Amino acid sequence: MSNDFAQLLAFDFGTGRIGVASGQALTGSSTALPPLAARDGVPDWSRIDAMIAEWKPDALVVGVPLNMDGTISEMARRARKFANRLHERSKLPCFLVDERLTTAEAKEIHFARGGGSNFRKESVDGIAAQLILESWLQSDRRIPSHTRLEDLYDLGNP
User: Fold this and answer.
1) In the sheet that 59-64 helps form, which strands lie side by side, from edge to edge?
2) Which of 1, 5, 51, 118 has a Cα at 20 to 30 A from 90?
């Protein structure tokens, strides 16, 4: 685990909602924040800018949903594009992390906490962003958002 970045924001990219979590490297902990609405994957950038100004992260982390065999999915391409835009707008370091199965795990956590199954109403996107951030904090791999798409396959193959 690396403490190069004390305060972090993580994002679980989606076309309708983007999950967000804040975390700290010192404690290795994270907190789910309310999800951001998106229209076909395009967020309200002013809300993201405000969130970055409020939380003052040292770095950003974006989950990349690779296919189960480690190959690139269309959502992985879109998540990487989102990460690059985050980096360009914020001028903060932005990293990618393999997020396969985080949504399924987030749903299990949600159910264990007594949540229902209407995920349009009860979002698990923040929990997924927490899992993404905690995975990144526990790893020594730091994959910059500008990594070539051809090299993303390496995310799934340590």
Assistant:
1) 42-43, 29-39, 17-24, 7-12, 59-64, 94-98, 143-144
2) 1
Express each pLDDT in 78-123 by its tens digit.
999 999 999 999 999 999 988 866 666 556 655 566 666 544 555 6
- Crossing angle for the helix pair 102-112 and 125-138, to the nearest 10 degrees: 120
Output the pTM of the full model: 0.81
Q: What is the domain count for the chain?
A: 1
Structure tokens at 138: 């526990």
Residue 156 domain flag? no
Asked, for residue 36, whether it belongs to a domain, the answer is: yes
Query: Distance between alpha carbon 112 and the CA centroid of its chain, in Å?
Result: 22
Q: For residue 53, how many other CB atoms are within 10 A of its CB?
A: 9
- Whole-number Å distance between alpha carbons of 153 and 93: 21
E strand or H helix at 83:
helix 74-90
